[in-house]
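Example record used in the benchmark description.
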Amino acid sequence: MKLSAPIYHLKRRARALSREETIPLNKALDRIARQEGFNSWSLLAASAAATMPCGELLARLQPGDLVLLGARRGHGKTLMGLKLIVEALKLGRQGVFFTFECNEAEIVSHFKTIGGDFAIFSDLFQFDSSDAINADYIMDRLASAQPGTVVVIDYLQLLDQKRSNPELMVQVRALRAFAHDKGMIMVFISQIDRSYDAAAKPCPDLGDVRLPNHLDLSLFDKSCFLNDGRVRIEAVS
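Model output (structure tokens):
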């Protein structure tokens, strides 16, 4: 669904509406979203993320790269992760989506949202929602995957949720070495801390990543942050 104006213009309109009618900004955003044909602002933002130029992002990624993909809830990070996979599938490369969050029906629905046909890519795409997902499990599943495979893990903060799993730092280091050795691109979807203030900066950055457990973010090669249709891609120094 095409928006009547860029998303940042719609957000300005919502701010003006909030001031004029003395209503909370979130209510004003939802009202603007309904005018655009969406039930809520979060759905509008997610839809905007589905139109992002992921082919361009994929072209900037190198075999062995670890990518941190972060956004607030409802801002399209899962859709963008899947769209990266779809772009790889279109090139004849393999794509694997590990998730603690989605079931297969939701993945099929997401494919439709981003303009992909789940059935067409069934030979190249794998989906895994096992409760056992951790670094060892991922490496075992990817043992025979081809170089250039795009792997998305949804999401980073859940890898060590079980006490029996190794620390998050240990797992990411292992996956980094594995991705480099195999020539895969590995994308970790990440939550953003609630303290992030979109009014202070248009997109989150590494300092806004929610980390309940210690993790050296320099283990990642690149970062990609989303907010209200904006995309910020940077090399991690």
